[in-house]
Amino acid sequence: MTCIVGIAHKGTVYIGGDSAGVDGRLGLTVRADRKVFINDEYVMGFTSSFRMGQLLNHALAIPSRHPDTDLEKFLVTDFVDAVRNCLKTGGYATRENEAESGGTFLVGVEGRLFTVHDDYQVGENVDGYAACGCGEDIALGSLHSTVGQPPKKRIEMALKAAERFSGGVRAPFHIESI
Fold it and tell me: Is the pTM of this model over 0.90?
C-alpha cells in the first residue's frame, strides 16, 4: 500500500502521500485520515501501517536537539530512540530473533529529507528526493524525469504515476511542507 514522495528544495521539504488503505489481500479503502502530517518542526509521511502513522503523528514526542549536535547524528540516535519508544509503547513495534522493527517513513527537517526504514536506519538521498511504499519505484522514475520543475508539481506527477501503475495507490493526494 501507499506512495509517499518527498523533495528537499531550497531549504523547504515537501512530502506528499496518497490515501489508500490496503488490507493485504484484495481490499482497498480510501482513507480520510492522512499519511502526511507535521509534528512539531518535522514533516512526515508514512507507509507500513496506519497505526504507526497515528503514533508518529499523535504520540511521538520529539526530543530537542542541542545546537552543537549534527542533525544526522541526532536523527540516528535521539530521534530514532524516541520513535522506537513511541512505537513500543503504542503496541506497534515488533521483535523477531532479537531484531526489533517498526515501519518506513519519510521525515523532513531543517530543509533536509531523510528516510527512516523499518530497521530504524536513517538515510539521506544525494538527489534531494525520496519515495517509499508500493509505488516507490514508479514515483522515483517520475521524480528523476521532472528535475527542474516546481516541487509540488513534481510530487503530484509522481503520485499520479504511482496511482496509474500501482494497485495500492489512490487519490486524493495530500502535500505538506516545512
Answer: yes
